[in-house]
Amino acid sequence: MAGMNVATLNADAWHLQYGDPAGARALAERAAALAREQGDTLGEAYARVSIACFEMRHGDQEFARDEFQVLKKFFAARNDSRGQLRAGFGVSVILSWTGHSSEAYAELIGFVPQLEEAEQVDVFVVRNALGAASAEAGMLDEGMRHFYQALAAARQLDSPDHLALVLSNLGDTQHGAGNYEDAIRFLIEADAMVAKSRLAALAPLVASNLAMCQLAIGAHEAAYETIQPYLELERGEVRIGKADAAFFQAIAAHTYTAHGQWDAARDMCDRALLAAEASGELRVVAHCHWVRGLVERGLGKPIESLQALQEASARLGNLQDPYYPVQIARELARAHADLGQWNEAYQHLEQHQQLYERSLGSAARARTQITRIQSELAEAERERDFALLKQAEAERARSELELLNRQLAAKMDEIEHLQTKLREQAIRDPLTDLYNRRYLQEELGNEIKLAERRHYPVCVVLIDLDHFKAVNDRFGHPMGDRVLIELAGMLGSNIRGSDFACRFGGEEFCLVLSDIGIELALSRVRELLERFHLLVIEMAGRRLDCLSFSAGVAEYPAHGNSPEALLAAADAALYRAKAGGRDRIFSAE
Question: Which residues, given as ranges, of the chain have pLDDT below 50?
Fold first, then answer.
């Protein structure tokens, strides 16, 4: 290894991680060995980051997670911001893969200010990961913005591998929003980039995303043809990571079901499920159970089909991708219909219709967002070109241009943070993360209109914590906040997807229960009250129990035909419950 440069080896390894993962690992191992020879602990640490990235995607994810944490502390102790960025990137990817997209976003967003001075490859890595974390967290607008900034960095790198990855991610994001036209356009461009790559390591991933879009629009034959070239790859050949391989297998199984090849679909689905569970890919796990439901139906096993689809629905958890709930709700309706369970079939069909209508709005917003971002980027490029022209004309203007660029970058970050903050503030209560009163005022009217059209009842429940002032006075406001958070979590986790919970104000909460009568609503609120009685909170060595709340329940249309009337009726019932001694639930008169 005489004469080799550790920094060059590390730079090449970091640049090749997407296009040639095996080559990147080999270079990083050479860099690590040479750094140890020379006593270069910093160079060895950079090599270990690249090796951990390979393990994260292709090997031992637990080893990678621990290594990233150790390296992040190592770089922090040396105030090495670039090293912290690269190790933090690895931490964020693992968080995102395991369903912790909000934590992944928080891990990365702090690195944005230093991207102004960072290498383009690091700008790409952070922006691309931020795009993925934002999309996974349901912030599609912000995700698209980050992906476009990653795309700009990839074009400056002139790397087909980096371009293929971000274009594939843009396609996947648009697919999730239901905007299949733009999704396919991005993925076709990604496929063109793959064709220019030296190893085409990302080809199966791009094919997976493209085939999923084709399946979504009913182009089953095209999806089958898209997947076919990659089915016979040598299993020992390093192409894509374990998580992406599991996704590829799930899509391949899906294409088999579209061709009625049930045995091949089941075999591929089983392999995909094992790989997805091992890598913690929650979205792929849900997809595998969905495909298994299709296979069981194709084999004439309606009960097993329903069980698989119910498992798929349960595995969705907190996933923000709107594509899966729409598709799985439709398949659940079919499965119940196959068994003659018409009531359940109708409920899932209604759910599918509601989700589908929302997805249409999401697709329209996504198309508008693409146009807006492209316009903003074009305007930014024009401004940059003008600034460069001025710089060429007058050297003395250089300091002014640098200041302008810094201000522009700071303003973009400020706008992004402000948009995110305003978006959250508009509909969420910051303490409990429940919907707020503004959201209730907007959505309750919509819910009543829907119930009127479809002839079902809606119940509104107002809940007030008993003796909450005494809790604050005796235990302090931190304990009071903890009580509010615990009750909010209990409310949010014990309602259906068609219901919603809000913080009404102070210690008051509101539940809106769709398609449910007053008696069943009272029963459910009683169950909540019984669970709340059992809650024990310990903080700073102090213990709080024997908690209770009072509640009032009103039903549309029996107690009112407008949001104001229903809330007033529920509030009157709540007043009677409190006047009657608290710790009880009354229905409206």
Answer: 1-3, 234-236, 238
DSSP-assigned letters across all residues of 17-54:
TTT-HHHHHHHHHHHHHHHHHHT-HHHHHHHHHHHHHH
Distance in Å from the first CA to the final CA of the chain: 86
* Residues 556 and 451: beta-carbon distance below 8 Å: yes
- Give the position of tokens 């621990």: 66
pTM above 0.70, yes or no: no
Instruction: Measure CA 458 to chain center.
Output: 30
Report how far residue 88's alpha carbon sits from residue 311's, in angstroms, rounded to the nearest whole number.
34
Q: Are 403 and 390 in contact (CB under 8 A)?
A: no
- In this prediction, residue 184 carries a pLDDT of 85
In the chain, count H helices and then E strands.
24, 7
> For residue range 37-77, what is the model confidence (pLDDT) as tens digits?
999 999 999 999 999 999 988 888 889 999 999 999 999 99
d(CA 161, CA 65): 25
**Burial (Cβ within 10 Å: 0-12, 13-18, ≥19) of residue 264:** middle
Question: Rg of the chain's alpha carbons, rounded to an integer?
Answer: 27
Q: Tell how strand 500-505 and strand 537-539 pair up.
A: unpaired
Query: Looking at residue 585, what DSSP letter applies?
Result: E
Q: Phi first, then psi: what are they for 463, rounded to 5°? A: -120, 135
Handedness of CA 501, 504, 506, 507 (dihedral sign): negative
Three-state DSSP at 464 gives strand
Distant-in-sequence, close-in-space partners of 30: CB < 8 Å, separation ≥ 6: 1, 4, 9
- Are residues 124 and 161 in contact, defined by beta-carbon separation less than 8 angstroms? no
Pairwise CA distance, residues 331 & 343, whole Å: 15
Q: Which pLDDT value is given to residue 393?
A: 62
Q: Which amino acid, 561? A: N
What span, in angstroms and rounded, lies between the C-alpha atoms of 534 and 203? 54
pLDDT, one tens digit per residue, over 438-470 is 899 889 999 999 999 999 999 999 999 999 999
Under a CB-based contact definition with an 8 Å cutoff, are residues 447 and 395 in contact? no
Backbone angles phi, psi at 462, to 5 degrees: -105, 130
Of 191, 297, 206, nearest to 244 by C-alpha is 206
Residues β-bridged to residue 117: none
d(CA 532, CA 544): 12
Which amino acid, one-letter code, is at 71? L
- Quote the mean pLDDT of the chain: 85
CA-to-CA separations, 478 to 130, 534, 587, in angstroms, rounded: 32, 20, 32
Tell me which residue has tokens 């640490």.
45
At 358, give phi and psi (nearest 5°). -65, -40
The pLDDT tens digits of the residues spanning 339-362 come to 999 998 889 888 878 876 766 565
3-state secondary structure of 555: strand
Q: What are phi and psi of 5, to 5 degrees?
A: -105, 125
